[in-house]
Write a structure and sequence with these properties.
Blueprint: E1 7-12, H1 16-27, E2 32-35, H2 51-56, H3 58-76, H4 92-116, E3 120-122, E4 125-130, E5 133-137, E6 143-153
Parallel strand pairs: 1-2, 1-6, 2-3
Antiparallel strand pairs: 4-5, 5-6
């Protein structure tokens, strides 16, 4: 199959940049695939489509910030005629669960958007074989080869954890 490609475009990375690239190319009629795999952090944190911002960065932070603002507003509400029962209690676990449920809904939404645009999604760890071919390894260790005329690397970055402190 020399010269024949599985895809017109293969995007490595399922964060905001990679997803935007894949969706746009698919809308322009290209055959597109996205490969995305996140190595768990040293603490075992894993996440789905959407990248750092959606899963462990901007979005969860903004939701927690909003929850804190609500707490302050409730405390100030009586100054403006609102009768709020005392004491005002907060359930951290309930808030954390609400944040995680919102993140999961965004992960699912990204999958649906890819499906709607006929973008194939692979949850595999990718490495280059050559300029047009990527080897993917699934969580279970299964290997697959994917090829494309063009490959975009949109993996973002991860912090480097020191081994000795």
């Amino acid at each position: 199959m020399e010269g024949q490609q599985d895809y017109d475009l293969l995007v490595i990375g399922g964060g905001s940049g990679g997803l935007a690239c894949a969706k746009e190319a698919a809308q322009l009629g290209r055959k597109v695939a996205v490969v995305d795999y996140v190595e768990p952090s040293p603490r075992g944190t894993r996440w789905g489509l959407g990248g750092t911002c959606v899963n462990v960065g901007c979005i969860p932070k903004k939701l927690m910030h909003y929850a804190a603002l609500l707490g302050h507003m409730i405390q100030d509400a009586h100054h403006y005629g609102w009768e709020v029962g005392q004491p005002i209690l907060h359930d951290w676990e309930k808030m954390a669960e609400a944040v995680q449920n919102h993140v999961k809904s965004l992960n699912w939404g990204h999958r649906v958007q890819l499906q709607d645009r006929k973008v194939k999604y692979f949850n595999i760890k990718a490495s280059f074989v050559n300029q047009h071919t990527v080897r993917g390894i699934t969580k279970g260790g299964k290997e697959m080869l994917l090829s494309a005329e063009h490959i975009v690397i949109a993996t973002g970055g991860r912090p480097k954890y020191p081994t000795h402190i």
